[in-house]
Design goal:
The complex is a heterodimer of chains A (about 230) and B (about 220).
Chain A (H helix, E strand, L loop, with lengths): L5 E5 L4 H12 L5 E4 L7 H6 L8 E4 L2 E4 L1 H11 L12 H27 L3 H26 L12 H7 L2 H11 L10 H12 L10 H12 L5
Parallel strand pairs in A: 1-2
Antiparallel strand pairs in A: 1-3, 3-4
Chain B lengths: L4 E5 L6 H10 L5 E4 L7 H6 L8 E4 L2 E4 L1 H11 L11 H27 L2 H22 L12 H10 L2 H8 L8 H12 L1 H4 L5 H15 L2
The chains are: A alpha+beta (about 230), B alpha+beta (about 220).
Chain lengths: ~230, ~220
């Protein structure tokens, strides 16, 4: 008989790994966090996610679930009685939440990553403009989705809050490195307040890395090899 | 009050067809509007300002975008018949995983097969077959990815099944010898009423594929 135990295979610095951890915290589900070593993949990871060989993987009663946003929905559906729903109640609002989560992964985060990798002022300006355009869209999306409540999902943190909020530590690292604010009270007032609420939530705080710690880590992994 | 359902679509689109199939599986009456992708309608630009892409489902004036998002929406709104997603959370997660796999690992090489030639095309063909083989292993001996019932993953794949012949002709290769059971499932899906009424004549897709290949593949 498979035990009901829950494991998350991941790494502390990965924003994608943060997603299932926040979801499990919101539902008060205890889990074992199995950390992968940077640069190597464990037997357990390769066995649990043979198709992509990527983190995060949630293992529940010995069955693996892969892909961070899919894991969040699985947690929400499996432990539906243990906390408020992470998705809105109407099919339309759910479709909107899923739309923005996909936008964040397919368009917004890749442009954020490009800022750190950009070489030269021209390229940096171009990618910054892309991210700011995205932020303006997300600022409006927040106003539309939250309908005056504290989170994208309303009263409580939900799927879209998690999908976007997981990137806040990396966003702050990018702001520090580039000397350029991306989410702030002037450009994105609603998102700025939301970000603070999100990061201070008890389900999020234990798994969100400190900006300084992440900045050190970023320096190591993005270090350009000396000639 | 009757529902107003409009679908902004493009006839050969493997993404648009998914929405058509889902609506027909549920017996939903809808108005199909053909978009000219080189001259997009003001309605499309207004309803999908972020991506400006089809399909867009407009239900009582409110737009839903992104094909599998549209399919999931249709499943949730018209939940009284033909469920497209399983009810068990683990099975649902598996269905979503495979749709994500299809939209990344099948989509990218499929796109290159009709739009490129030479080495790039050869690499794309290899990657495409590799992805189809992984799907075939997942299918196993089930008639559909959904098990006994046509469902979410089958709908996602049908967009590619309808392009099989065009891909084979553009790439000069055959899929069946590599993936016989996937091909059998494809034939089963292509015979379904909702699919027959939604997919164009395969010859027209081949013709379309060669027409755009001339433009992209200089």
């Amino acid at each position: 008989m498979a035990s009901d135990e829950v494991k998350v295979i991941g790494a502390w610095a990965s924003p994608f790994v943060m997603r299932p951890r926040i979801a499990l915290n919101l539902k008060s589900v205890p889990y074992e966090f199995v950390q992968e070593t940077f640069g190597a993949k464990s037997e357990l990871l390769l066995k649990s996610n043979p198709v992509h060989k990527k983190i995060p993987v949630l293992i529940h009663a010995d069955k693996p679930v892969c892909e961070s946003n899919i894991i969040v929905e699985y947690v929400d559906e499996t432990w539906s009685a243990s906390g408020p729903s992470m998705l809105p109640s109407t099919p339309y609002d759910r479709a909107i939440a899923r739309f923005w989560a996909a936008y964040i992964d397919e368009k917004w985060f890749p442009s954020l990553k490009s800022i750190l990798k950009a070489e030269g002022e021209e390229e940096k300006k171009a990618v910054l403009a892309q991210v700011e355009e995205g932020n303006a869209l997300l600022e409006k999306a927040f106003i539309d989705c939250s309908k005056g409540k504290p989170f994208f999902n309303g009263e409580h943190i939900g799927y879209l809050d998690i999908a976007f909020g997981c990137f806040l530590a990396w966003l702050r690292v990018t702001e520090l490195a580039g000397g350029h604010k991306l989410i702030d009270e002037v450009k994105t007032p609603s998102l700025s307040k939301w970000a603070e609420r999100f990061c201070n939530d008890p389900a999020v705080k234990p798994v969100m890395p400190e900006t300084a710690t992440l900045a050190e880590f970023a320096k190591k992994i993005f270090a350009k090899p000396t000639a | 009050m009757a529902d107003e359902v409009i679908l902004l679509d493009f006839w050969p689109s493997p993404f648009g067809v998914r929405a058509r199939i889902a609506l027909r599986e549920k017996g939903v009456k809808f108005e199909y509007r053909e978009e000219n992708l080189r001259d997009k309608s003001p309605l499309l630009l207004q309803m999908n300002p972020v991506h400006k892409k089809i399909p867009v489902l407009i239900h009582n004036g409110k737009p839903v975008c992104e094909s599998m998002n549209v399919v999931q929406y249709i499943d949730e709104v018209w939940s009284d018949k033909n469920p497209l997603l399983p009810s068990d959370p683990y099975q649902r997660a598996q269905a979503r995983f495979w749709v994500d796999f299809i939209d990344t690992k099948v989509y990218e090489p499929a796109d290159k097969i009709w739009s490129t030639k030479g080495e790039v095309q050869e690499t794309a063909k290899k990657e495409y077959i590799e992805a189809l083989k992984i799907l075939e292993a997942e299918l196993g001996d089930k008639p559909y990815f959904g098990g006994d019932n046509f469902g979410f993953v089958d709908i996602a794949m049908t967009g590619y099944y309808m392009w099989f012949e065009a891909s084979e002709k553009c790439g000069n290769f055959r899929i069946e010898p590599e993936c016989p059971t996937l091909m059998a499932s494809a034939r089963r899906c292509l015979q379904r009423d909702s699919v027959v009424n939604s997919v164009p004549d395969p010859e027209k897709i081949v013709e379309f594929a060669f027409k755009i290949r001339k433009i992209y593949c200089v």
